[in-house]
Specification:
By secondary structure, this protein is of the alpha/beta class. The protein has two domains: about 170 residues, Rossmann fold, CATH 3.40.50; about 130 residues, Rossmann fold, CATH 3.40.50. The strands form three sheets. It has a seven-stranded mixed sheet, with helices on both faces. Strand 6, helix 7 and strand 7 form a beta-alpha-beta unit. Helix 1 runs parallel beside helix 7.
Length: about 325
């Protein structure tokens, strides 16, 4: 069942359940930060509407910078502003930033521990018909290897706003990962959000598998858990909204109960959430494990639902992985 202590949206499984893009939470968070902190500045690379920075531009035009299609310049300018005492947010599609300007962010912002927040939009196959050139499915891997970086992947728009607000309290670089299309709103304003903490959204009396999910695919994991419970298979579903720093204590707390793990992400299975948890468990508590995500391939164009089904990242695929890993336990 849904964890009652987290005050989640108990209407999330209804047919008319509220849906909203995680990027909308980013836009709302920026405006709130701008209203409360005069040091917050925002930069974008010709994508103010798509990245929802247009709201900040209207509210605080004197602190908004449109750099054009020049992602590397954007990162370098932001690093300079950060060195001058500003909290700089840069935004673009994730394939371009941190993709195209990886080295510039690394050298100017991350290496110098500058107060720059990198907002990567249109991540994962959720980007749909724009195809592989715009579906960022490697961005967690290429940022997670940076020293000192923090990485937040909000599960819905409400958490997207909370993650944006929380990032401003971190004095060094943060990567914020957002998606394009509307997705299920699973949390509420009352649901707690704490950087570096895993939360068990779905709990059971006798769970057999722990499912760690990140981003909007958490909903598919919850849907799978609900259906599995009807079949007599109990699970735990945990929301991993912070990929780095990873909550090792939380991972062990939940895996001690089940001794089997599934990871779920809209990302390549190498280098992302699954890789991070596998690395941790290999050192601390090796367990049977299955990975839901892109399996070393680029995705085609299509609707998000079509792509999730094709690449086995939806609820039926998660259920299949759960049953497979239970078999490996024995």
């Amino acid at each position: 069942m849904l964890n009652p202590n987290l005050k989640l949206n108990d209407k999330m499984f209804d047919q008319d359940a509220n849906k909203k893009a995680t990027r909308d939470g980013f836009g709302e968070g920026l405006v709130e930060l701008g209203n409360s902190n005069p040091n917050v500045v925002v930069l974008t690379a010709d994508l103010s509407d798509s990245t929802r920075t247009d709201k900040f531009a209207k509210a605080h035009p004197e602190r908004f910078f449109e750099v054009g299609v020049a992602e590397q310049n954007m990162a370098a300018i932001a690093a300079g502003l950060a060195e001058a005492g500003k909290i700089a947010f840069i935004s673009s599609y994730a394939t371009f930033s941190p993709g195209k300007n990886w080295e510039t962010i690394r050298t100017t912002a991350v290496y110098n521990r500058a107060n720059v927040k990198i907002a990567g939009h249109h991540s994962g196959v959720m980007t749909g018909p724009d195809g592989a050139t715009h579906q960022a499915t490697e961005d967690i891997a290429i940022t997670r290897c940076w020293p000192d970086i923090q990485i937040y992947v909000p599960c819905d728009s409400v958490e997207g706003k909370k993650a944006t607000l929380a990032s401003a309290n971190i004095p060094t670089a943060v990567y914020l990962r957002f998606t394009r299309d509307k997705s299920a709103v699973m949390t509420t304003e009352e649901t707690s959000f704490e950087v570096g903490k895993i939360q068990d959204f779905w709990i059971s009396d006798n769970p057999q598998v722990t499912i760690f999910a990140t981003g909007y695919l958490l909903y598919q994991a919850l849907l799978a858990a609900k259906q599995l419970e009807e079949e007599g298979i109990q699970t735990i579903v945990a929301n991993v909204s912070t990929i780095k720093p990873l909550d090792g204590e939380g991972i062990l707390r939940l895996t001690d109960k089940t001794r089997a793990v599934i990871t779920v992400e809209d990302h390549q299975i190498m280098g992302g959430l699954g890789g991070a948890i596998a690395e941790f468990l290999a050192k601390n508590q090796p367990l049977p494990m299955e990975f839901i995500g892109l399996q070393d391939t680029f995705a085609q164009s299509g609707t998000p639902d079509e792509l999730l089904a094709k690449y086995k990242m939806d609820a039926p695929a998660i259920k299949e992985a759960v049953k497979k890993v239970i078999g490996r336990k024995t």
